[in-house]
Design goal:
The protein is an alpha/beta fold. It has one domain: Rossmann fold (3-Layer(aba) Sandwich), CATH 3.40.50.880. The chain has helices spanning 40-46, 48-59, 71-76, 120-132, 134-143, and strands at 5-7, 13-15, 31-34, 63-67, 84-85, 99-100, 105-108, 111-114. Strands 3-4-8-7 form a four-stranded mixed beta sheet, sandwiched between helices.
Length: 147
């Protein structure tokens, strides 16, 4: 396993602990998540390995999350077909298969989407609720002193 350092558009460097090519199975995964933003979403859209893993997760009925511009990748792959979702407002017109609703976060079956970075905490808490339950979500909500 090789660690990779990735620096994003806002000059924040993240160190991976697992590379895409090292993933053989999604058996241990509860969810796949796509971060939004640009040019990151364009890179996700162009990456066949990302597409393959998303389709594996979709057919295995794993949760799939995406925020900001990233839901466009899911729409491109058909994962949003017949689903309600949200995305960054300027990407609404790129969604062709799903139905964009005016909400900060949307859960439709195994699909969880968020509008953008401004709702990241709310979106994260929704993911916690789905994966770990309302009690855990509420505990985190209170610990973060959210209103």
């Amino acid at each position: 396993m090789t660690q990779t350092h990735v620096t994003g558009a806002h000059q924040i460097t993240v160190t991976t602990d697992l590379n895409l090519e090292d993933i053989d199975s999604l058996d241990d995964a509860d969810m796949l998540f796509l971060p939004g933003g640009q040019p990151g979403t364009d890179h996700l859209m162009a990456n066949k390995r990302v597409h393959d893993l998303l389709m594996k997760a979709y057919y295995a009925q794993k949760y799939i999350g995406a925020i900001c511009a990233a839901p466009t990748v899911l729409d491109f792959l058909g994962i949003t077909e017949g689903k309600k979702l949200t995305c960054y407002p300027t990407y609404r017109d790129f969604i062709k298969k799903g139905t964009v609703v005016d909400a900060d976060t949307v859960v439709d079956g195994k699909l969880i989407t968020g509008r953008g970075v401004g709702v990241a905490l709310e979106f994260g808490l929704e993911i916690v609720k789905v994966l770990k339950g309302e009690d855990t979500r509420q505990s985190l909500f209170e610990a973060m002193v959210m209103k």
